[in-house]
UniProtKB/TrEMBL annotation:
Transmembrane helix recorded as keyword: no
Coiled coil: 165-192
Single annotated GO MF: transaminase activity
Name the record gives this protein: Aminotransferase
Keyword set, alphabetical order: Aminotransferase, Coiled coil, Transferase
Cofactors (names): pyridoxal 5'-phosphate
Source species: Lactococcus cremoris subsp. cremoris TIFN3
Length: 293
């Protein structure tokens, strides 16, 4: 809103987390911003050229996730940042899925704003942070006080903020070993599925984080599969974890396959952390095999 005198156009991707998609949609509906939701290529890949061809002289904001929360797909944030270095549009990067898991340096990717949430690196729920370019002006989110550099009024939730900082410190101290542990779990799961001769395919669209695995089992209804696994004590989802319990198909897969594709009905999303174990993966595959066979 603070930069509307420079233009009225916002670009984001069609595969963003609902926290971004719904916010941008609100800006369109309430304040009549012109919004472009950029879809991936037909094969699911998302090169920076897709953003480039949608840039306009009146574009004032590009918002893009670093890694997708449903598939783990890594998006070309550095390449987009380079594109925008010669454009007036400010660049927001949603780094929620990568913070504490891979090195994150906002200046290296050309991010003007970068957001993250503590619970994704084992911090408290309900707290996050926003990096911002001090040369840019943006309006206050909540009014009424001087807190958080006059950007977000209200008494700070100090214990959660301290928890966030400590959790991130611990994640960064073990960033390489944690990543390797999650990679091992990911590879082990795929290996066990093949060993059990369970038919499946991956919804994988290029370089990805190993922390999220989106698998599909042909002709198997994922809602029924989700219910059976849940009753067996396994917490998985069919889309965003924040939308767990809903029956809506994945908007991420819909952006790739189309809304009428049967592939929207046979996928599940599995998430790993370094706190999971190989034994847990074995138990999961054992239960999955008993359900599918």
């Amino acid at each position: 809103m603070a930069n509307r005198d420079k233009g009225n156009h916002i670009i984001t991707t069609a595969i963003e987390h609902p926290s971004v998609l719904n916010t941008v949609q609100y800006l369109h509906d309430r304040y009549k911003f012109d919004v472009t939701f950029v879809k991936p290529n037909a094969d699911g890949t998302f090169p920076a050229a897709l953003i480039e061809k949608n840039l306009r002289p009146d574009t004032i904001l590009v918002s893009m996730m670093w890694a997708n929360n449903e598939t783990g797909q890594l998006l070309p944030v550095k390449e987009v940042g380079e594109l925008l270095s010669q454009h007036q549009a400010v660049f927001h990067v949603d780094a929620t899925q990568v913070m504490g898991k891979i090195p994150v340096h906002p200046l290296e990717i050309g991010a003007d704003f970068l957001s993250a949430s503590a619970h994704k690196f084992h911090g408290p729920k309900g707290v996050g942070f926003l990096y911002y370019n001090e040369l840019l002006h943006f309006d206050a989110l909540i009014h009424g006080g001087e807190q958080e550099e006059k950007r977000r009024a209200g008494t700070e939730n100090l214990h959660s903020l301290v928890g966030l900082a400590k959790a991130l410190e611990l994640a960064l101290e073990n960033i390489e070993s944690n990543y390797q542990a999650v990679e091992e779990l990911n590879h082990h799961l795929l290996s066990k599925l093949k060993e059990q001769e369970i038919p499946f395919y991956k919804n994988n669209f290029g370089p990805s984080m190993p922390h999220v695995l989106n698998l599909a089992f042909p002709n198997e209804n994922h809602d029924l599969l989700l219910t059976k696994l849940d009753l067996a004590g396994f917490a998985i989802s069919t889309g965003s974890a924040c939308a767990a319990g809903t029956i809506e198909p994945s908007h991420v897969l819909e952006a790739v396959y189309g809304k009428n594709s049967d592939k929207l009905k046979e996928n599940i999303r599995i998430s790993f952390s370094e706190l999971n174990t190989l034994d847990e993966v074995n138990l999961f595959v054992e239960k999955l095999s008993s359900i599918l066979k």
